[in-house]
Known about the structure:
Shape: globular
Radius of gyration: 18 Å
Amino acid sequence: MKLWSILGNAQSLDGGAxxxxxxxxxxxxxxxxxADNRIPLACRALLADGLAGKRVLFETGIGAFFEPxxxxxxxxxxxxxxxLANLAAAGFRHEDIDVVVLSHLHFDHAGxxxxxxxxxxxxxLLFPNATYVVSEACWQRAQHPHPRDRASFIPELAPLLEKxxxxxxxxxxxxNALGDxxxxxxxxxxxxGLMLAEIVGEQGRGGVVFCADLIPGxxxxxxxxxxxxxxxxxxxxxxxxQFLDDKLARGVRLFFxxxxxxxxxxxxxxxxxxxxxxxxxHELKALPxxx
Length: 291
């Protein structure tokens, strides 16, 4: 099995929102904001070729489905569908993907499932040969969003997924499409049922886990750092501690979706109990992983 990091459309969001109660004097040392206080964010997918005999894409990024006015509002930098272009650069088409695993259905993680916006044209679903995998709690949240996060969902997406006949809703730590090769961990601090997919390494060690919005990038590995978008920051911190302890003990690497400069890292912890990363990789290109 081999792994690629595939960049989708980039985004810029308010730094204060992304760092919750961390003061700007601190977070701007980690990521420099622009004149509008926005920080750059990647929307990075993980491609695994040969996982359970299949070609699997973990998330699809924000995509290019927004009309121009909303694209500007939400800081999406490109109008073209960058994920498709970068898949092609790696030698793949969206039609080649067998399984798409979605941590949740917020637009910056699932919008890449949709075709690019064209005036007067309805959005359509991409990846026509793929099974779409999503947790039951995330699916229910998309059907019945809270007013606080209603704007984070794409109204057209859920009906298209359901109509495809290729939607698998997950209720445990495994899915039918991938069997024992992928294990799911769950978090509720950011959104209900956030599904963190771990590509299981040999004897449960040395795999890689897609951290989604539990840990968007390296600065958020530090336990107190949460986002203003999180539902329950204290819950998320407790979930993050348990998650990182487990990955550190088993040598599972972290894959980051929103970190502009880093795709994957090992977990580290110092003698004071502070978590950090080491062996940072900027990108993955056909990286072998036994699983």
